Structures are given as C-alpha cells and as structure tokens.
Amino acid sequence: MLHMKNLYHSTRNKQNEAHDYEAVLQGIAADGGLYVWDGLGEHAIDIEAMLSDSYAEMAEKIMRQLLPDFSDEELHRCIRQAYGESFDTQEITPLKKVGNDYFLELFHGPTSAFKDVGLQMLPQLMSCALAKEAGCKVMILTATSGDTGKAALEGFRDVAHTGIIVFYPDQGVSATQQLQMATQEGSNVAVCALKGNFDDAQSQVKAMFADKDLSDGFACDNITFSSANSINIGRLIPQVVYYFYAYIQMIRNREIRPGDAVNFCVPTGNFGNVLAGYYAKLMGLPVRRFIVASNANNVLCDFLTTGVYDRNRPFRKTISPSMDILISSNLERLLYYMGEKDTQKIRGYMEELQQTGSYAVDDSLKQNIQELFYGGCSSDEETRSAIRDVYHAYGYVMDPHTAVGYNVMKEYQKQDPTPCILLSTASPYKFSKEVYRSIFEEELTEEEFAIMEKLAMRTSTEIPRNLFALKDKQKRFYDCIKKEDMPRYITQKTKEIFYD
Ligand SMILES: *Cc1c(COP(=O)(O)O)cnc(C)c1O
To answer: Hey, is 391 helix, strand or coil?
Structure first.
C-alpha cells in the first residue's frame, strides 16, 4: 500500500509510526526514539536539473522527497516564508573560496548562527501541520546554551497557533546571547533565566514534557507541548538543502564537474548538521567522506576512531560553546541507517548508553561508519591559532566553531586531495571578544559593542546588522526562577499567550 510507505517510525520500534506532519509536531517519538523514514534515498535527486535553480527552488525539490505528506503548495509557501526576507543574502548560504578551501557560510540568517536555516523553517512546517489538525495549538518549550534559544524565538515569533518559552542558565550564556534573547520581539514569546547550569535547564524542561498535570491542564483547549531541538525532522530536513546548494555552487564556479566527489567538514555537537549531509548523500549527492570536527569534548572523535561511544568523561567548557556536548542525539539515526535498519539493535545501544554511559557498536557497523566518516578534534589553543593564521594569510575571519572544523580539515587533507567544503556555523561577531583576542593577541575589556566595532575596523569586515541593532533595543524579559517554579511559570505564560 502506497500510503504506508510514507510513514516515519521510531528508530527504536518500527511499530511506532507517524505521518511526517505528526512527527514535526511531536518532535521525539513516545518511546524516546527519533523519527526515521525508510523511503529515504529511494529516489535520487536530479542534480543537473537544479543547476540554474535558486536556493528556494532547490529547497522545494529536495524537501518534497522527504516530506511526502505535505503538498507542493504547502511546501512552496513554507519555504517562501522561511527564506523570503529573513536572510541578509539571496543566496541564503553563500560559498566562499578562501585560499584553496571552500567555506559554506551558514550564518546569514536573522540570528547569525546556522541554527536559523532549520529554525526559520520548523515553525512554518509546524503551523502547516497544525492546520491539518483543526483547533490545535502548540507551546514550544526549549532549554538553550545560547544559539538555539534565540534562533527558535526568532523563528516562532508571531507564528499563528504557536507560543514559545525559552529557558537559559542564569549566568550561563554570553553577554551578546543574553541580550539577543532578553530583547526578543513578538506577542507569543517568553524568555526566562533558570538558576543552575545548562544540564539543569535541559533536564527540567524534559521533565515538563512528562508532567501529566501540566499537559492535562491544557489538553481540553487542544494545547500540546513540544520542543524545537535538533532531533525534530522539521529542523533536520531543511539542512539537507545546503549540501546540494554547496555542490551546485562548486559546479557553477567550475571548481568541479557534475558527478565529481567532494568532502564536507562539519563542526559537530549534536550530530544534526552532519547527519543532514549524510541524508544528502543517500539522496545521490556525490560525497566521498564527511570529516566530523569536535572540540575538547571529543566523544564523537573517539567513537569514530574506536567504535566505542563513551560519555563518561568530564564536561569541558571551551571557546566553541555550542559544541560543548557529550550526548550527540542524532547519532542514533546514523546507527539506524548504517546498521541495517535494525531497531532492536538501536534500542539495545541506547539502553546501554542510558544505564552505563557507553556502548560499543559491532564490527561491521563500525567498518561501515569509518568508510564514510572521519573524526578529529581541536583544542582551544589550536582553534585560536587557526583563527589567527587564516586571518593573516587570507584576511578571512572565522568564528571559533568554524575554526575547530578548519583544523580538523587541514589534518585530514594530508591523506585525501578530494575538494573539501567546510561548513561555517556562526558569525565571528557572536564571539567578538574571543576572535579579537585570537587574531590580535590582546584581551579587550570594553563592553560587547565596542569590541564588535574594533574587530570590524581592524579586519575591514562588517558587523551583522541584527547583532549591532541590539544596542538600541529595549530589554523585555527579566524573569529568573528556580526549577521548582517551572510548572507554575509555564502555566502562567501559556495562559497569557493563548488566552489573553
Ligand atoms: C549548534 C552548533 C553547532 C553544532 O551543530 P550540531 O548540529 O549540533 O552538530 C556548531 N556550531 C555552532 C555555531 C552551533 O550553534
């Protein structure tokens, strides 16, 4: 039966099925698994037919393959709303040549982080999915260590039938990130600091999804709670597009010919970004290898080298904080697709991870993964040197996350001359102080905007307008609560957003 094939199901149990729009609304499957689709890769994308397409036109062709239950018209509308005006370049994700390397700049969205590509689209897909279930509303609850929160707020602001509350660790985000969130505009948003660190915020928000009293209180009004983190297919799928876009730019610029293989190097935390690249490969993109770059939290690098995933190690704070993570959730999807789609096997690994903090994949799975993925890591000192060296050699300013990728790419290139595209995940101006210090070997003590201006002047680069504009914005959110107060806070804000 044709319609059966369109269903997504959990990585941990094929019986737990959902339509794509249901998966978008739920985020995660009820058994804790991630939604996957066995039809992925059955039809290759015709790359040569996209050679003269715009980003939006490519997005339609690619996303249509992955979201079979959304109509062409719906996808067209969602894509127009997501990418129509909110990025500072029509290219959306421009490809820059720096020396002999290629940088795919993913930070031209409204919050200057690559999360915008997914989080401008997810709310559009959700609102479309809500329209299929008459009368439903969704309240997004998100814990953030900085980038996701702001990108999610900006994506969901004023989207019909949705509301969003972001919790961030009090004193745990950068000055710019805090200001980005505290000044958020929109009538359906709330931002709140939480006493404790990011792990506390994250686990407390997770506890809220399991809180029956909270969900029952709003069920009669058809309000459900959901999350905006990167395990949601509505955030993952839009990221597949820029891998094709990069490849097509390489052809247009005559750097490669159609059919030639390329590599991608991806600075990685939760494994969402690089997994989207793997989806692109399954859909026919000629990729030889993915180079996965970690900072000092090198759990993935070790996994790709040894086949053992072991999170039992100290959590390190680095200068690339968006990659400070020890559980890479989206790896579960890779294990599913590369491990013969065996849900029982995945369930076993994830139970082991839960109980002991580690698991070892079997030899054939390890071999499959190693053929396609290479893992490397970069220390803070190496990352600073890369920022400095690339600036002095080419005048190009990298953010610390991109610089982690640059180091690992350079290491890998000693063994493989295939052209490599480095994914650049944030604007250097989100981390001005660290970037300035790396390049000019001088620590500035001025306030954030003065440092941005100094960096701009000395490197002759531009400050993204959204970041500089924060200077004149009104702060709207000052709330700071203890975790025990979270259910009450959520109840109050949900009422304010949906009933007033
Ligand atoms: C989130 C983030 C990453 C990590 O991406 P994943 O999809 O979690 O692997 C890398 N760099 C920046 C700047 C980010 O915000």
So the answer is: helix
